[in-house]
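Supplementary Text 2. Reproducibility record for the structural model of the 320-residue chain.

All settings were left at their defaults, and a single model was retained for analysis rather than an ensemble. We include the record here because the model underlies the residue-level annotations in Supplementary Table 4.
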Amino acid sequence: MPGLFKPRVVTGEIMRTGVIQPLPGIGDMIWLLPALRAIAEAAPDGKITLFTRATAQAPSLFRNEPWVERVVALPVNKRGFLSFVTNMLTIRRALREAMPDRLYVLHHSPRYVQAAKLSGVKEVLGYTPAVKKIIDTGWARSLAFLQEIGVAVADPYSRLSVAEETRRAVADRFAGLARPWLVLAPGASNPERCWSPENFAAVADRLVERTGGTVFLIGAKSEADSIGRVEFLCKAAASVQAMVGQPLEEAMALMSLSDGLLGNDSGPANVAAALGRPAYALCGITQPARHSPLLHLILPQGEAAMAAITPDQVIAKMLG
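Retained model, structure tokens:
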């Protein structure tokens, strides 16, 4: 649309640009990263205000990204008519408090467009029926949306950075540990996506045996039991470091310093690839977005099941 994205002045200030991205996962946020960056690049001041769920951890993910000016938390999405009304009112209030002049809605649900219009946002851009019909991940759908409305996407791949001081602190902390550093992330928000602790432990032992390096086990506090189980089963315990519940920025710094990451189809694999490190995602029952050339999918041999992926298959993929 010619002229649609020319800067315009609103009450003497540069036009403010907002984006609603309501998907709750870290992986979801990484999938939509190319679209978010492209929208910021099209904004008059090169910045966006991001409206999203707290569970996506956008403040930590984007702490080193200057094009994210502000993150505004959206309410937890609950079912039921009363919850729907409450959510709509809360979204409307959030939009009014951080009122953008132009708002992009990266989601198929009409309620976010409706809430934006009710809040008084001057210009709301949402998915068209053609974009909503795309049967794919949010990555493909969001890029099709931007193409349709004429926003240039210079880079279709997800890329993140970490503050250098955080990288240095993590590098100093583990400076004495043998290289290569290989990160294993055995958790996932959906238990059905999780490979067994026995398999992760078998791979950890094989990695240490084959490379002589160090294996890091990372995950949230809620994943402490599964990480503890993997650590307990590892025979090469002296070369395994378990890290549970560390701040996301520190986990990201470790990923960026590592030689590779193995995880379920979940946030860590997506983040590691966006940080420029080889990431291997165990995809027994899912097919994630191809948002990075560094994201390598490990698929089951035969039936679609996590148990159909073997440690031998993983080692062959990671070490060639």
